[in-house]
Amino acid sequence: MPCSAVTLSIATICAIIATALLAIAFSTDNWLHYDVWRNQIQSFAAKHSDAESLLHNMNVKYYYYTRTRGLFRICYPKERPPVSAVPTYLSPIETHCSNIDYFPQAEDEKIANEDATSRLHLARSCIALFIISFVTIFCAFWTGLSGCWKRSSGAITATSILLLVTCLLAAGAMGLWHTVEFFEKEKVVGEDYFQQWNTVLRDNTKIAYDWSYIVAWAGIGTCLLASILLSGAAVCLRNEREKEEQLNLQYLMPVYSQKQPPYPPYANYAQPQIYPGPYYHGSQYGPYNY
């Protein structure tokens, strides 16, 4: 079996898997998991100097509840906060969720300082890069389909480049996502985030990466692998095309036109030529008397 067929098959499978993984990661809500130990917070509240305010916040602030966070939603797999704290709705997987607001009002305290504004722009850019990566992978689908149909090494090379661009865009989006995470942990960007939590909430909350985050990186790695395989398939197609052309040349016989006149029949040379006329014995000029 030609190496191009094997490599193209594996690359196509990898590209499909990469697209599916990136789509799943983009649409699911399990990038970060906040595990809040509410029972321990209640026990510590009695010893806290501001116990009344702490207990009040536990019932009216959503970040005192165990939750998972994605690119678009915050979901509550256990207890959900009251509607007065944050409006929730049932997601397609039957989990109570609330939307993340990427366009807050100008007077909102969430964008009251420069760090908060930078975090908001970075979060928007992360979403934009993911969307552009899906556009490029859609274009790669059509160029790859054309390349496989026509067995064109140029189209396969273009597909490889588009998948590489998709990989870089998605990796850039992940980089922006980590930058947003850094701002939320180290900068003053709002009371919803780690830097402005009180000590009791910090000590009784565990933050961990969830499966959607892992799926996103797996999709990026698979997309890079598909790009490399497609590049190898393009080289195989080019080499196979050159071999086919060389084999075809061996069967082509050169034909040269003959311009010289044809030779007379061989019989003309085999028979002696007979010249008419009188024949004389002796001199051909006749007898002379001296």
TrEMBL record:
Chain segments annotated as transmembrane: 122-143, 155-177, 211-237
Keywords attached to this entry: Membrane, Transmembrane, Transmembrane helix
Record's bilayer topology term: Multi-pass membrane protein
Chief place of localization: membrane
Gene3D superfamilies per record: 1.20.140.150
Source organism, top-level taxon: Eukaryota
GO annotation, cellular component aspect: apical cortex; membrane; septate junction
A Pfam cross-reference name: Claudin_2
Membrane found in the keyword field: yes
Cell location: Membrane
InterPro entries per UniProt: PMP22/EMP/MP20/Claudin
Protein name: LD36024p
Annotated organism of origin: Drosophila melanogaster (Fruit fly)
Lineage: Eukaryota, Metazoa, Ecdysozoa, Arthropoda, Hexapoda
